[in-house]
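Q: I'm building a small set of examples for a reading group on sequence design. Run inverse folding on the following structure and report the sequence directly after it, with nothing in between.
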């Protein structure tokens, strides 16, 4: 099976640009409802993950007391506790699942390191559940 089966394409993803301000990141996270977003460089390559925790630590460390002040700091000034490790589009399913056990989402890049989308842990689990429901004996399901 190809990992593209699980892919949420870039066009359907919420993400941040590396030159976004902290305020833009807060607003985008709030609007999307996600607690972590991929960060893309100006050339479209994946360059990290920003989490709500990263934002909170940055606000504390910068002693920012007013949201207006966050417009003068970019998200790359934030320390990232853990960047989600990307996989290549040709990665096998076993490696994808292995990464997804430790990350809410797995960024997917092409051969030129361009971000093409994400695979969510939820998509993998939903596939497993659907597959199980199709093959499980009726008495085991109900």
């Amino acid at each position: 099976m190809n990992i593209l089966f699980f892919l949420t394409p870039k066009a359907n993803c919420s993400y941040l640009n590396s030159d976004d301000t902290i305020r833009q990141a807060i607003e985008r996270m709030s609007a999307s409802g996600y607690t972590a977003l991929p960060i893309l460089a100006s050339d479209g390559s994946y360059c990290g993950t920003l989490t709500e925790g990263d934002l909170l630590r940055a606000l504390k460390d910068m002693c920012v007391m007013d949201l207006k002040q966050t417009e003068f700091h970019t998200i790359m000034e934030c320390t990232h506790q853990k960047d989600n490790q990307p996989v290549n589009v040709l990665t096998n399913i076993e490696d994808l699942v292995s990464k997804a056990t430790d990350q809410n989402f797995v960024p997917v890049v092409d051969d030129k390191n361009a971000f093409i989308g994400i695979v969510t842990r939820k998509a993998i689990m939903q596939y497993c559940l659907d597959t199980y429901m199709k093959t499980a004996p009726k008495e085991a399901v109900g």
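Helices lie at 22-32, 52-61, 93-100, 121-135, 138-141.
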